[in-house]
Design a protein that fits this description.
By secondary structure, chain A is an alpha+beta fold. Chain A is built from eleven helices and four strands. The radius of gyration of chain A is 30 Å and the shape is elongated. Chain B is α/β, with parallel strands linked by helices. Chain B has helices spanning 56-63, 86-93, 111-120, 126-139, 155-166, 185-200, 212-218; strands at residues 15-27, 30-41, 45-49, 71-76, 79-80, 96-100, 173-177, 204-208, 221-226, 229-233. In chain B, α3 (111-120) packs across α4 (126-139), α3 packs parallel to α5 (155-166) and α5 (155-166) packs parallel to α6 (185-200). The chains are: A alpha+beta, B alpha/beta. The A-B interface holds A 2-3, 6, 202-203, 205-213, 216-217, 296 and B 64, 86, 89-94, 96, 98, 104, 106, 117-118, 120-123, 165, 168-169.
Amino acid sequence: MRAIDYALRHGWASLMRGKGSSVFAVLAIALASSVLGAVGLVTFNADRVLARWWESAEFSVYLRDDATSEQRGMVETLLDQSDAVSGREYVSKDQALARFRREFAELASMTSELGGNPFPASLEVRLQDRTDADGTGESLLRRVATLPGVSDVRYDRAWLTRVGQGLDAMRRVGLALALLLAAAAAVTVASVVRLGMHARKDEIEIMELVGASAAFIRGPFVAEGLLQGGIGALVALVAVFVGYRIGMAIWGVDLTVALDGMAPRFLPVLLSAALVAGGMLVGGLGGLIASRRAGS
Amino acid sequence: MQTGNPCDTLGRNPDVIEATNLSKFYDRSVYALRDLSLSVDKGEFVFLTGPSGAGKSTFLRLLLLKERASEGQIRVNGHDLTTLSRSEVQEYRRGVGFVFQDFKLIPTRTVFENVSFVSEVLGVAPAQQKRRAFQVLKWVGLQHRMNAYPRELSGGEQQRIAIARALMNDPPLVIADEPTGNLDPDLSLEIMNLLREVNAGGTTVLVATHDRELIRLVGRRSVTLDHGRIVEMS
């Protein structure tokens, strides 16, 4: 405990003494954390929408207009026998037309001009949550598609998976960029800490000569890096929050529509805390790299 | 500062420093020390002298474990310095006080902080740190300057603070490298008298100096080095 107390007190004092050079380290961490925070904000909200879509995703079996009741019965039997299915609902041609007119009121007049009902009857199927993971949804889709009387099969989760993969790719690119910037930030922190070490070389020598442990000798430098990292990440968090508020003030309504009626939210507390912890980790690592030879 | 009987069971003072055939070279053609064998008894006051480049500082660097010997054996306070691990080095150094020519005081800390710093970085409880720091400052006669910064002190006062710092751990051995090198003759004698008082308390003192007049005035055993070898003991 004394080593931690000593490290924090002297790390803070060193940070205050070298304010000018510490600004560079703080800014470098802030830049890396801002990129990570911005990517986190976008993917966090996209994940929310995706999760909602995923929950309401269906497996739709469209029936031919000339499908017989026996053919429909065969499809229903196959669905009922499958463990992957948690429920189903038959939507007749008339119900499908009524639903379209209700949901797309501005296009309702078009349907009367067509001179007939273009919407097929369908079976809307709800699947168990695990079906995307073990592939039973895909397998059921292939079997249903071959049955007589079936004109088409649509599996929402297939494209949602592709959207999710796109989002993952975006997350990976963002993370890679943030890691690259974090490495640069760690080098900047190490350089700034090294400057401080040079100014305190007599103090370090005395500590070594009186037999101080590495925790006492390196601790203040690691703490200085941690503090620089923490301050940098907090600056980034504030910058991302300000950006979020400005974005909401200008495009709030459009963004809510784009997110299927869900208002964009700021990063949750846990993610915000993780961002600050990440900044501290990068800063601490910089301090550790700079002081790795002290006390050895 | 120390108390207790320094003699072993045979009535002979055990060695605090025992160097045997000690050599230090940077390549085989440049020897800083060559086949040096030297014993310093517990409670002894010994001068190490010789011209510049004789090997005095190298020997002290080996004692402080800032460097390792190339050949030979060296034992200090019962530790074999040629085989100590990193954690053992820390333990060993806690038993050795050091004083340098340039004082090496921390300019941003007060006199009191410079002295108590030793205990602080060894994790000693704050109350104990303060008590001991005040005790050693009083002993060197500078307790009234404890809130001053090193730049406000004379050279002699700064060296007394450095001696106080060396005594913080109550070490059995104090090593001083040219402690009077930056001081005038009167202050030099004052510092030597202080080191004699340290020695009178039972602490072994080893002083490297090239000041032969000072050695004559203090009148203790001296070991003269030249080209890394002992050339005279008196």
